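Key result, reporting period 2: structure in, sequence out.
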């Protein structure tokens, strides 16, 4: 694979200051770093970002860390001290973008609010990610991704009717918020080209999830319909479900396009359903979803999974199965599209990680380095600020860096 250098990337001239931790803020800066931005990550001395200790660890460091913090420079700095706050103000005065995901008001308490930083750097773009946003009656409530997913409407819909709701197996609320932050940053950069001025991007976890909820609100407003969990099906869109196979596995079949439905019914030996005028369009099929699902599953139960996949692929009916990590790691399509890449960790060991998105034809992103050691770039970054070695030694002795 031809890996582009930073000088070839679309964000190569941008300096990003990351004051966030865990998921939402760092995920957004990860994306910026993959496309060439110089991301300076501020971490508390001694402990660093708590993500360093989340999920599966190897030699004391989270394997997740090498995905979330790739292409970043780590500076250890105590933001609770006046000296640390002054250094952040200096860094922000030279930055294009600042990303933070602290509780609203925290930066203001440290003298690092928008009013202070933008006065020194009018072109600064500040992305602020929080549970409930920077305004409103819930502003000061603590909010993690799972709470945003619940308030935004997603948690209620995940699971089966009459059973407790379940969470999505990843921190989707945080990641969605990170994507909205990046969209906002790119929009603000476009505006800055015209006006020369930066602005604040206010992203709330619950809003990022709510924005994904399709027709949930207008259906309630117009007809007082409360959308309910549908288990493995997609209520109102038929057929789209998980079906049992002869060998105990499951397949996912999406036969909800009108012409696709006909091909599906014909291949499973139900031409009568294919030609039934009641099922010509989705609204009619949805009224008889159980009948259609039963017909499909009676066919899948007589066949092993691979036979079903091959048969439906042959007639161009969308079909798949729930991939595990092992399935992903060996899948030829993931590999062909470079969605699985291998990096070298600081300990010299290789590690497979997800590739870079989105895919640009002329200036694709890249993975330049794995997640840095805590404070690995502190001296380098402070030297660029003009902080001499003697001063750095004093700051280090005082535990500020």
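The corresponding designed sequence is given below.
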């Amino acid at each position: 694979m031809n890996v582009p250098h930073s000088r070839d990337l679309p964000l190569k001239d941008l300096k990003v200051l990351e004051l966030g931790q865990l998921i939402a803020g760092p995920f957004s800066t990860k994306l910026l770093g993959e496309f060439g931005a110089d991301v300076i990550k501020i971490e508390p001395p001694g402990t660093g970002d708590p993500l360093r200790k989340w999920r599966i660890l190897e030699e004391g460091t989270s394997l997740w860390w090498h995905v979330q913090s790739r292409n970043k420079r780590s500076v250890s700095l105590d933001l609770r001290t006046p000296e640390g706050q002054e250094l952040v103000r200096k860094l922000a005065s030279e930055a294009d973008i600042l990303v933070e995901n602290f509780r609203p008001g925290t930066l203001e308490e440290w003298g690092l609010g928008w009013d202070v930083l933008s006065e020194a750097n009018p072109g600064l773009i500040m992305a602020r990610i929080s549970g409930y946003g920077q305004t409103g009656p819930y502003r000061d409530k603590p909010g993690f991704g799972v709470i945003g997913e619940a308030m935004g409407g997603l948690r209620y819909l995940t699971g089966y009717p009459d059973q407790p709701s379940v969470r999505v197996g990843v921190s989707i609320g945080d990641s969605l918020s990170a994507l909205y932050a990046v969209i906002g940053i790119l929009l603000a950069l476009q505006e800055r080209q015209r006006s020369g001025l930066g602005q604040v991007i206010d992203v709330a976890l619950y809003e990022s999830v709510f924005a994904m909820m399709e027709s949930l609100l207008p259906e309630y407003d117009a007809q007082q319909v409360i959308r309910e969990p549908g288990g493995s099906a997609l209520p109102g869109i038929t057929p789209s479900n998980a079906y049992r196979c002869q060998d105990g596995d499951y397949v996912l079949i999406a036969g909800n396009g009108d012409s696709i439905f006909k091909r599906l019914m014909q291949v499973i030996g139900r031409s009568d359903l294919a030609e039934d005028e009641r099922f010509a369009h989705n609204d009619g099929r949805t009224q008889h979803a159980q009948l259609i699902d039963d017909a499909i599953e009676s066919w899948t139960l007589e066949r092993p999974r691979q036979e079903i996949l091959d048969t439906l692929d042959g007639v161009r009916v969308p079909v798949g199965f729930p991939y595990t990590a092992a399935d992903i790691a060996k899948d030829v399509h993931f590999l062909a599209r470079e969605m699985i890449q291998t990096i070298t960790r600081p300990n010299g060991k290789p590690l497979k990680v997800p590739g870079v998105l989105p895919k640009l034809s002329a200036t694709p992103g890249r993975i330049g380095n794995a997640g840095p050691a805590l404070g690995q770039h502190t001296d380098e970054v402070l030297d660029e600020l003009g902080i001499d070695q003697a001063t750095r030694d004093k700051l280090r002795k005082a535990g500020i860096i």
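The chain has a mean pLDDT of 95. The chain is about 40% helix and 15% strand. This case is discussed further under Risks and Mitigation.
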